[in-house]
Structures are given as C-alpha cells and as structure tokens.
Amino acid sequence: MYGTKSKIDLAFEYQSQVAVLRPSIHSRRANLTVKFQDLYGFTVEGNVDDVNVLNEVREKVRQQGRVWWALEASKGANWYLQTTIGQGSALTSSLKFSAMANAITLKKLIRKGIPPVLRPKIWFSLSGAAKKKSTVPDSYYDDLTKAVEGKVTPATRQIDHDLPRTFPGHPWLDTPEGHAALRRVLVAYSFRDSDVGYCQGLNYVAALLLLVMKTEEDAFWMLAVLLENVLVNDCYTNNLSGCHVEQRVFKDLLSKKCPRIATHLEALEFDVSLVTTEWFLCLFSKSLPSELFAYGMLSSMRVLRLYLTWPWQSLR
Amino acid sequence: MGAYRADEDYDYLFKVVLIGDSGVGKSNLLSRFTKNEFSLESKSTIGVEFATRSIRVDDKVLKAQIWDTAGQERYRAITSAYYRGAVGALLVYDVTRHVTFENVERWLKELRDHTDANIVVMLVGNKADLRHLRAVSTEETTNFAEREKTFFMETSALESLNVESAFTEVLTQIYHVVSKKALEIGDDPAALPKGQTINVGSRDDASAVKKDGCCSA
C-alpha cells in the first residue's frame, strides 16, 4: 500500500532531481558556480566540489532507498514503525529476538540515511513525537492554535519579527501561507511551554521541520519532542543554560577527539562557541544545506539514541 | 581612507561590538560597512557573527574587528561574554520603534558592566530612511547621548547614509584615545610596533585609556 506508492513517489523525485542537477554536469566543464533548487526548495549555490558532495549524499540516500524497499518487501510494509511503536506495554512480554534484530537493522539503516519520502513517517514515530501526540486528544493542536489566536505576548511579537527573517526567499516559507504556518507552530509552542516561550533559533528549526514533515501538526509535535525529550534541558529557556552545557561538552569532546585542532584554536585564543552557538541553537538548520540537515537529523540529534534505548528499557 | 587592505597589513586592531534590540538592523549595518551590501532578505542572527574591515586614519591603518550579536534578551548571557576586550561599541536602535530606544539604557548598563569604562560608545539610530514612520526624534536622542556621554549618529544601512561615518568616527576616537595614552606615557605612537593589538579594555591593561570627554553629535 504505502510501500508501492512511495516507490513511485521516490522514482519521480529522483527523476526530477536528475533533471535539476543536469546543469552541474556542464558547469563542471566550464568550472562555474552552480545554482539549483534542492529537495526542500532552497536555492543551493556552490562550486563544483560542493555539488559533488551533495551528489554523493544523494547517491548514498538513493542506494539506501533500494535497501529500504527490499526490506519492506521481505519484512512487510511499515515494519520499521512496528519495531518501535510497540515499545512499552505491548512489547514488554513479546519482545523477541526478531524484534531486537529488527531494531539493530533499523539503527544501521537510519545511520546511513532515510529515503526522503519516508522521513516524515520515521521521524515522527522514532523520535517519540507520535507517542507524545497519542497522550492528548486528537484535537489538541487545533484547539491550541484556536485558543491562542489573536493573543499578543513578547513571544508572539518576536515571532512576528522573525517570520520574514527565517529563510527569506524560500519559495514556500517566505510566502504569506508559509509565514502563517510557521507562525501557528511557533506561537502554539510558545503557549505550550511558557518557560521556553519563543527563542530565536527555533524559527529555523520549526521551518525545516515544516518542510520535512509536510504538515503543521507533525512539525509541532516534532518540535515538542525535540525540546522536551531529546535535547539537553533548558537549551532555549531564559538564560540558555542548556546551550552552555552543550558548548562545554563540545569543547571537551574537541580536546579529546581532535587535540591538535583544540590546541591550535587555544593558541589563537579562538573561542569555538563563536561558531557552535548557532549550530546548537538552530540544530544545524541554518548552517547546513537542508538536504544534509534532513539526512543527518536522526543520528546527529540523538533522536536515534533515544529510540535505541527503548526496546531494551522495555525488557526490564 | 577606505582602502581595503590585506588582512595582516594593519597598525592597530580594535574590537568593536554591535549591540541593540532584535531587528534594529545591526547585521545590515555591519554588511554595509564591511562589504557595502544591504539585504532586505537578511536572516536573524543567532549567537554572534563577526566581520573585519581596515580603514586609514592619519597615516595609520586601523583594522576593525566587528562583532555582531543576537538581540533577543535571553541571548545576553551569551553575547555579553563577547564584550570582553571591546574598545568600541555601536549601540543600535530603530528610529521607527520607540521601544528599541527605551531599551538603550539597559544595553548601556549591560555594556558598562562588562567592559572597561573607557570604551567608546556610539548611539546609532538606524532606519533613518523611513522618515514617515519615525518614532524617536533626533533631539530626544541627542539629549540622552549628552547625558550619557556617548556619541550619536542617525544612519540608514539601506541608503548607506552615515554608516561609514559612524564606524569611522568610533574607530578614530579609539585611535585618538590610544595615541593620547601613548603620548602621555612618553611614547611616540608612531613607534608602536606594527600590527600591535590594542586592547585598551582588557583586564591586563584596564587603565590604558584616559577618559575622553566625548560628545560630538
């Protein structure tokens, strides 16, 4: 059902990508700057090397796509959702070796990239957003957006200020429709968690989530699960203390894993937080091409780690 | 003045910070000054960004290292860490939004809490091109600037109005402060080693600059 449909979608998607990418073949010869629209509607501009990197990623994702379809054929449609959704009571008694094997397979698959058409479904399920949503009435998001309509708070004022400054020039985000959708998600969240309210940086995260998840409601729940369960606590609250924690951990990791770079930066008296603050507050959505962001989201944002602990936790 | 020079080819390096409420145009002032660019489609700044440009004053090349900061209040804990070592600041407000001017006082306090008392501060009323939307009068700010002993200028990053002058004035003032100090200690400012970083506001050299009566506007 979904499997067949998505394969067609994907084939279509790749065809369009090939067409879009064709100019780069010519420009490689001419050694020109390449400009094209990526999967999420962003205009990507770069030299031939940049395009090659992106093409490599796309090729990997494409190859991975084949693996996903093959597994779907053998394990059944949506096997990846059953592997995880059932965590908790249903699986507690019945988690068997095959389920664990599936979880391990899935972990490996996700590390290598999720086909774009499956991203909304898999992110939603494996991040815990689906579970979070299932604990409240179906109308939660609609009720919330209706209830807060027309309210003015410091958060909504800042949101309104940032809407046109979030990925300006994007063919959908930078339209009245795109602004309205992003506004509803951010305003709704600002009322859901008044400690966070709205913090600059969330606009970029929510915008990318909208593009990947396709629906406002799913983007909202993804944002909720990221802030409430996945990221370090207090990343976006009043003094951004969680963000400071991230920076310290990053610095420690840098000294441990890349001591020469760390020493060099120290000698230059260069504070890496100058660049990393934005990484952590925007979850790379502002600094990476959107396709790379979407590609790396699950593994880099620890959504994966969160998911991986579940089957084993439920064994206890 | 205004000649763009190679990165290492300078006599003094001055750190200058750009602060003020969110959306007053700090990033566009910076890009106008360092790249002569203005973008109506600019993204909101997260954390801190910086750019440099060198200008010539007298026979010296002054390299400005300008730090552009996020304006949202909760970022202050992050951005104030970058004030250290700053010898100049452009405190920006939006002439069309009075609230951004009202907040100037808090920004000034924040700045003075985190930097040397001798820092050169210029109050910048940006978006002066939006004449029909003006909400802060020039007189109001002039009085404030006199009281607070800061410089003051109105700019438009869009129309490239006074942007060059605002930055140049700050850099020149810093330079004067530094050379005056050098004279006072009996040193010929010209004899200072090439490429020396002047960190008048740093902890090691907190008394390097004499307070200058400094209201020009």
Automatic annotation (TrEMBL), chain A:
Domain Rab-GAP TBC: 113-311
InterPro entries the UniProt entry points to: Rab-GAP-TBC_dom, Rab-GAP_TBC_sf, Rab_GAP_TBC_domain
Classification via Gene3D superfamilies: putative rabgap domain of human tbc1 domain family member 14 like domains, Ypt/Rab-GAP domain of gyp1p, domain 1, Ypt/Rab-GAP domain of gyp1p, domain 3
PROSITE patterns: TBC_RABGAP (PS50086)
Organism: Glycine max (Soybean)
SMART domains linked to this entry: TBC (SM00164)
The protein's name: Rab-GAP TBC domain-containing protein
TrEMBL record, chain B:
Family: Belongs to the small GTPase superfamily. Rab family.
Gene Ontology biological-process entries: vesicle-mediated transport
Gene3D superfamilies listed in its UniProt record: P-loop containing nucleotide triphosphate hydrolases
Designated name of the protein: Ras-related protein RABA1f
Membrane topology summary: Lipid-anchor
PROSITE patterns according to UniProt: RAB, RAS, RHO
One Gene Ontology MF term: GTPase activity
Provenance organism: Glycine max (Soybean)
Top-rank taxon: Eukaryota
Residue ranges crossing the lipid bilayer per the database entry: none
Keyword Membrane appears in the UniProt entry: yes
InterPro entries: P-loop_NTPase (IPR027417), Rab_GTPases_membrane_traffic (IPR050209), Small_GTP-bd (IPR005225), Small_GTPase (IPR001806)
Keywords for the protein's UniProt record, in alphabetical order: GTP-binding, Lipoprotein, Membrane, Nucleotide-binding, Prenylation
GO cellular component, one term: endosome
Annotated localization: Endomembrane system
